[in-house]
Amino acid sequence: MTAPLRILLSARAACEHGAAIARCLSQRAHRLVQEGDADIAFVSRDVTGLSTKHQVLPATQVFYDTLLAAPSLRWVHIHAAGADRPVFVRLRERGVSVTTSSGANAVVVAQTVVAALLGLARRLPQLAAAQREHRWASLIGGMLPRDLAGQQVTVVGWGPIGQEAARLLGAIGLKVAVVRSSDTPVAAGVPTVAFERLHELLPATDWLLLACPLTDRTRRLVDARALTFLPPQAHVLNVARGEVIDEPALIDALRGGRLAGAYLDVFDFEPLPADSALWDLPNVIVTPHSAGFSDGNAGRVLRIFLDRLRDWEARSPESP
User: Are 212 and 157 in contact (CB under 8 A)?
Assistant: First the structure.
């Protein structure tokens, strides 16, 4: 007799999604568990909550410890698009399959990128500061914005987020160039280079959008030297991982006027320390790793998990 499939997930996820999981596994006995051994696990957003990969809160740590202590664990699915948290690295090293929900929040992140780019282009941080000071600060003069049409956005990373952001930004008149894992062109007429050739596109870049996964090839991809290739009117937009860019070098470039500004949703250490210079730079928009938050994400993540669960069950030698 086949033993019930043990699925580790939070109590909240079990309550909200138990019926959907049961329908998905209609031919397979299973148990939803919150402790002990498990065969597979679903890491929903409520598990990580306000934890980051640098600062893990107690409730999240309990779940992570349960994952690491489960000897039968074969597959873990997570709500996020990236799997670079240390717990998932450790699980992969011991042979556990770790899958992500890449694409679930791509449209939301891309919309946030467009909002941030437009905000920086239209000098909204400076205008908001003037509003708080009750100061009438006209854009006529030194702050006069540049037309966006014809400016180049260099998109680093050609996954769901990079592709959607490129589509939206192209629609408002920006030219698109791409940096990705290979130099195979993404489309006719779109300059495309591999990560190692990023510097070739930087001199013509007005907006450098980082939307790539964190790997050995992308860690500190944008270092102090790379920043020197960007023209002074350029902006950096980072929705990838903080470690993709040299944060101290970026701060120096922003302070020194060698870059026009930045939108940053990810950082070297999260939460961003209160004494970081990034909080107060007038040409920087900071958000707390929330570019992809939306009330529709949970449903999209669940659909991805259930689709993968059906495939996993179909391939399982223990399936009826």
Answer: yes
